[in-house]
């Protein structure tokens, strides 16, 4: 038999061998290891904490040296609404940047959001509320970026969109039910009728058809809504069976139809002439943006090769804008880039910003 | 509740064994599991946040990741049981499993691509699969047969305590160091390393069984031929297939408006608390009145849980919540450790790793079947009909499996290893 006596029971490889307690050397070794683990981990955590405190202090100094615009001044001109990612006390807050000088000074709204979307009449902020159990909120804003109403959000914010005139808002969150034995994962996408503040049932409860046949797969996940004009029509992504389909829906009838077999994260241009969405590149397997023309039906690939964890926004009828992570900590800082949809390369538009929307103030 | 740990195993000590030290092995293994569960649940709790916020994975990529590591453990578990028996080295096998998972926590610090994370998670799951059966075999070797239920109860209670503590530690760390996921992973690795150290120092390799025949693949054939164990495996498969997975039950609770979206991730806490409190008492009960009645009773609690979800629409939300989570906790306390105890008691010591792995794999396979079936029923018909079908199937199936289990327990305990040579 392959039985070999255990190291410490070498002399007594029988039943009684199990009765001896751990040898003194072993107990000492355990104590040493545990003390080292405790000291090492504790030391690292304390060092990380002091590094964070120092970084916060220097960021506060940098903040004091920055020029800020007044919120009302920027609201009056065509502007980008973004999530500010400059290091400092204003990190994560809503920022307003004039389209005429996107790399220049910005105005800061004192409201932190993981995702933000805006229209001339209303805005949507998906917020993370840190705590022992992190919770999430969906906040509707008025034209001046003031809080109108707050509702509980059942998951991690992923996408926020407003319709052109602010009649509809759409949010997507990741829901992670924690089953006892295994992690579960799904998305939840909810449309809100902004004037009444009423939330519609989530998209999974709507009827989706493909060539007239209802799609009933249990693993349906919807995300990334983009309204056509001011709604109620919209495009969205349907994920099922490891594939991503593009659907076109109608909030008034609560129905959707599959319109493309390979598509995700759609965004409809302001004149509804184009839809830019993600396709999977056959060779690399990674995502790339394509622009679909409603007139010609032609697809034009955009050269962007970096990861964009969002739908695009529209700077004008022919130019899209989107955030790309930067540096080692791609997670923390990002820039907003602009790209023409004819396939020319992107240029940097707004530094230290993510989650862009473009707002041209209403004239009434 | 740990007062009950101290008097383990209780009763007259068998000759040559000291009560405290026999209990010591079980408590040591419980401590290893507690530390390891703190480690792994820390990561599980923050992983969705880390993946979606820090790495910005698309939902689809996440779905693929999750699916990838769900399937890994089932086969590895059988392998872990067999390797432990083949080399008569359950401790070393478990040590490798715990070590793999500990290294993976450090691996999370090093990788940042979706593929890399997928690979690390898969290896982590492999470690979990490898260690489960050898660890249960070590527990079984540490106590006399009549105390198996209690020993597994103590172990599972400590294991669950770790699972409850892990998310708390993780979120407390994230409050202290906002957005610093590396610190969470590093601390998790430290907990895992502490678990490995305790295992190395305080758990002995299973003693040699005098005159035992060397374990080979043929011995496994003998194990499968053993009527009693085959009956238990069959019953586990059937019971697994008749069980609705927790994820669906929690979704039903949400659809019944018994829980707010914010509190949804906390549902497992309720179940785990009930499990934690009841694991030892029900394990002891199983030692006293027999493992089979307790196993069947646990499924009775499950029936109550299903019935409450299916027909309890009139119940107020909080009552429904307490009833469902409580019944689910009773189910786990009455089945998880008790089934391991039953499998261990029916398997000769040199083959215990494989025997326990076989029964646990049968249960896991049954649960996979049930998840697919319930999903199909839910989408083809509706959730109420799906639930009615499962209630009816469990009512019909429970007496049959009861008989199977009773025959297994009463059947002659032939040593398959004798026929394996």
TrEMBL record, chain A:
The chain crosses the membrane at residues 25-47. Keywords: Membrane, Transmembrane, Transmembrane helix. The keyword Transmembrane applies. This is TolB-like translocation protein. It comes from Goekera deserti.
